[in-house]
Amino acid sequence: MVSDGILLGMGNPLLDISSPVDEEFLKKYEIQLNNAIIADEKHLPMYDELAAKPTVEYIAGGATQNTIRVAQWMLQTPGATSYMGSIGKDKYGEEMKKNAQAYGVNAHYYEVDVPTGTCAVCVTGGERSLVANLAAANHYKPEHLTRPENWALVEKAKYIYIAGFFLTVSPESIMLVAEHAAKNNKVFSMNLSATFICEFYTKAQNDALKCCDYIFGNETEAKKYAEVHKWETENVEEIALKLAALLKESGRKTAVITQGADPVIVAHDGKVTKYPVILLPQEKIVDTNGAGDAFVGGFLSQLVQEKSMEECVRAGCYAANVIIQRSGCTYPEKPDFN
Question: Which Gene Ontology molecular-function terms are recorded (predicted)?
């Protein structure tokens, strides 16, 4: 059994507005396949256009929230996970609260007078492109984190995970939690999350990396990080080793890089280990949205139980495999991972 609130996540809660779209739609809104960006003016009409499609689905999302939901599902212990982020006082916000409760996640949302954030999930041939309109999610403040009832979640957690996207919102909140983790020998982990984070939030990202025990990411993000830092290599194994070396001086210092259908690369202690993923025929892949988030959720569900690296990766691959065969970051009632 895992202890109550053992895993805490903080991030940008977004309601996913998801639908299959065609190449024309991507062209119209200048969206690249398999990318994640923040919406600007030209993208705003897109949300209504997606919402009007008969194929549209609404799913509580946001990278960290996806990861925490998947970890909670894998653990099957109500209240094992907690989550904080900012939502609006509106129907989407209410939907989010209902969702978190149904999933067994103990969510403490900061509620603000701004619409709840949304993320357009444009699915083309099973691949996803994400355009986030942060709205309320962009208004998270350390004052919410430091309230006694919320800081209690930080105190209770032994493992903390924050996606890189939160660096655009509240780096101060990240550092407060990271410093607490360092002082109390807790496990702090983050995700590279997107190429734009590596490119435009370099200082905040590097400050946070120095506090991490684990860093997650995919090969595209890892290569972008290497390019921005002039490492002059595209070799993902080399990059993973260099990333691991940047982390907090603890015995953990681990970089975990996923590569889609190619093996997962784990760099620790100057060594790289590769773990094969569960391969699926193309026709079984419904939607890759949330695959990376699900991988981290599966991984953390075993890490909090102090399982081996092999088991953590196996659980990550299992969770990602389940999620890509379904629409959005959703899953059946119970996992059959053993």
Answer: adenosine kinase activity; ATP binding
Residue 120: predicted pLDDT: 94
Catalytic one of 16, 213, 287, 293 = 293
pLDDT given at position 34: 85
d(CA 90, CA 114): 9
SS3 31: coil
Residue 294: what pLDDT?
97
Would residue 336 show up in a list of annotated catalytic residues for this protein? Answer: no
Show the DSSP H helices in the chain as ranges. Answer: 23-28, 44-51, 63-75, 91-103, 142-145, 148-156, 171-183, 195-200, 202-209, 219-228, 236-246, 291-303, 309-323
- With both helix axes pointing from N to C terminus, report the angle between 63-75 and 309-323 in degrees, rounded to the nearest 10: 110
Cβ distance 304 to 1 under 8 Å? no
Q: Is the pTM of this model over 0.85?
A: yes
Q: Residue 207 class from Cβ within 10 Å (0-12 exposed, 13-18 middle, 19+ buried)?
A: middle
How far is residue 109's CA from residue 111's CA, in Å, rounded to a whole number? 6
And the tokens for 4? 């109550």
Quick one: three-class SS letters along 226-250? HHHCCCCCCCHHHHHHHHHHHCCCC
Q: Which residues contact 229 (CB under 8 A, 6 or more apart)?
A: none
Using DSSP, state whether 224 is helix, strand or coil.
helix
Predicted pLDDT at 250:
86
Type of residue numbered 326:
R
- CA 294 to chain centroid: 8
What residues in the chain have per-residue pLDDT under 50? none
